[in-house]
Amino acid sequence: MASSNWPAVNEADLPHGYAVTVSGRVSGVHEAGAVFQEVPFSDHERLLMDNALTDATRSTKVRFNIFIGDLGADSAAGADELFPSTPEAVRSVLIAVDPNTNSVEVRSGRAVADRANDRVCQLGATAALSSFRQGDLIDGLVSAIRVMAAAIGRV
């Protein structure tokens, strides 16, 4: 006889940066490199980002990746160097933001370049800029993801 304890995961027991989504899935983030004394984004902001990434990836079958950090003196070259190391790079889109230089770089993989073309990448960058100028990084990224997913289309 099978039995279960519902919910299987108690949200209060999860480490910082993890949350149970509406679907019941556990979503978590980690900070690369040095640990922050204060986490840069709230749980709500991370959940918004996770939902936008999940919805866009599911609807388009294109993996969306976000990078926020230093891209170096030449942000375009930094994004080009970073892109191959992202998850599923061949069938993905990378939105890379360098807050230090106020730059946004968008790259798409070979397998999705016909759908996530230069026009779509430019639409995503443009959608993000308005919110970035107002100091809202997460809203800008969510806007970019949604606009790009709509332009890429459903599969």
Overall morphology:
globular
Largest sheet: 3 strands, mixed
Number of discrete helical segments: 4
The CA-CA distance between the termini, in Å, is 41 Å
Radius of gyration: 17 Å
What is the topology, as strand order, of the major beta sheet?
A: 3-4-5
Q: What's the number of extended β-strand segments?
A: 5
- CATH T-level fold name: Diaminopimelate Epimerase, Chain A, domain 1
Order of helices and strands: EEHEHEEHH
Q: What fraction, in percent, of the residue positions are helical?
A: 25-40%
CATH class category: Alpha Beta
User: Which runs of at least 5 residues are low in confidence (pLDDT < 50)?
Assistant: 1-5
Detailed description of the structure:
With 155 residues, the protein is of the alpha+beta class. It has one domain (43-152): Roll (Diaminopimelate Epimerase, Chain A, domain 1), CATH 3.10.310.50. The chain contains 4 helices and 5 strands; from the N terminus they run ββαβαββαα. It has helices at residues 43-60, 75-82, 118-133, 137-152; strands at 18-20, 26-28, 63-68, 92-98, 103-108. The chain has a 3-stranded mixed β-sheet with strand order 3-4-5, with helices on both faces. Strands 1-2 form a two-stranded antiparallel sheet. β4 (92-98) and β5 (103-108) form a beta hairpin. α1 runs parallel beside α4 (137-152) and α3 packs antiparallel against α4 (137-152). It is globular, with a radius of gyration of 17 Å. The termini are far apart. The relative contact order is 0.13. The model is unreliable at 1-5 (pLDDT under 50).
